[in-house]
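Case study B.
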Amino acid sequence: MIKILAACGAGVNSSHQIKDALEKEMSNRGYNVKCDAVMVKDINEDMINRYDIFTPIAKTDLGFTPSIPVIDAGPILYRISAMAAPVYDKVEETIKEKGLK
Amino acid sequence: MLMEKKEEKLFAEDNVYISSKTTAEEVIQEISDKLLADGLVKPAFYENVIGREKDFPTGIDLNVVNESLPNIAIPHTEGEFVNVRRVIPVHLEHPVTFKNMIDPSASMEVKFLFMILNNDPEGQSNILAQIMNFCTTTNANDLGAFFKSTDKKAIYEFLNRSFKDQKA
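Model:
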């Protein structure tokens, strides 16, 4: 299973939308993806190391450099295919490059 | 007997506001005070919304949807500071500056707020997704007229109808 960490300020709205959208689209593309939605302030190195990809809403200063690929997922929030597709493509590209399963 | 779970309405006619404030802090303070008086939020709501807005802004550029639409913002905070699941529409009489949610280095002028009170993020359909569906699928002329309206009853009815249609 591919594990993705989505994050936003409050952990209640944006990150949950990213989670729902990524799980649905990646499943449609044939990948077994599980995405968790959390508050940025709760992320530490131990937590992020348990995931394969980090998808914040915007560029985010975590206070450390994430060891996993970071993909800004903000455009997904618009729910417009043309805006979301490049994010999904980048996630898929990363899955392929890293050989994630 | 199978009981169908009743989904609460996202909007309340009494909680539609028109604000003449000119800064994000002033608007959020004004609306937070009203929501606190109505028992919809907890006393720490305002300071948490403002704090979050500085670190994780919520302005949404609708120019990319349609150039004629004004920008919106969706101020919110964690569920522990609210008592309900509701969206609070606020028409802004003057443009108010917010930072862009997906590019916090950019500022934008906002003319309408959807303040999200969400004490149940896992529970039902995603509130932000519904707001974005509303902004991206509603007829642009109708949406333009809606954003200009200062009639609270009309704002409430349009939102209620549009969000209901969305779920159908």
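Chain B is about 35% helix and 20% strand. The remaining cases will be described in the next quarterly update.
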